[in-house]
Amino acid sequence: MSNEEHNIHDFDISLICEYFSSMDRQGPGSTEATIKALSFIDNLHKNSKIADLGCGTGGQTIVLAQNTSGNITAIDLFPDFIDKLNNNVQKLNLQTRVKGVIGSMDKLDFQPNELDLIWSEGAIYNIGFEKGMNYWNNFLKKGGYVAVSEASWLTEERPKEIFDFWNEAYPEIDTIPNKIAQMQKAGYVVMAAFILPEYCWTQNFFIPGITAQKIFLDKYKGNQSAEEFIKYEKHHALLYDQYKDYYGYVFYIGKKI
Ligand code: SAH
Asked: Which residues pair with 102 in a beta bridge?
């Protein structure tokens, strides 16, 4: 089968989880981008309640914990990711303020108006940007913040190959002005939107992926599903190299009014 005939939704979820739990982050990002996004948020103190949704193995959760003084509940669907996060939290002695919990971003256990900040790096696509912005708004206090990174088009037009790829992977990908308009409609003042620099994809995501892919392929030699998945990941990296002028991850920071 060619890459073109596959999309990310076709693969065995347990294999994908195993592959990604071997990496420090499960999507493009960086410590600097997390800290920059935090710099637009001014309401935090030691009693603040923060949720990190779709936290993965917690790369950004730890950065958040080290740069705020509040309490963080980090939520992900996958137990292996949460185990890795909680182990790191223990190692860094952050367990009084940071807790990894298994759960889903579309069925949150918080009270209405309870949270000061909802964080989500490279994960809101799982529920959809518009739905997530509207649903999560209920759990924020007035004056509370949302900060998410999300795949976005950087130009009005784009070549067909990259349009088709994203249309399969995540049809809700849209331009920055359209995403901002969706946030405004959902009840936020948009405080900032900035594009993640290229190294967040290359150095921090695709390059560590090369080593992880070698180890994974050695273990699953002959497993067609594993091999097709890695082919898809490689294809994703090549597409980024070719079409990075047209799309990227954008951090959006909004304040609930
Ligand atoms: N924030 C991390 C992980 C991003 S990858 C990082 O930037 O490195 C997206 C994450 O969303 C994965 O960890 C995946 O397990 C998680 N996820 C997928 N669907 C979810 C859901 N419904 N609720 C919570 N987490 C979910």
From this structure: 76
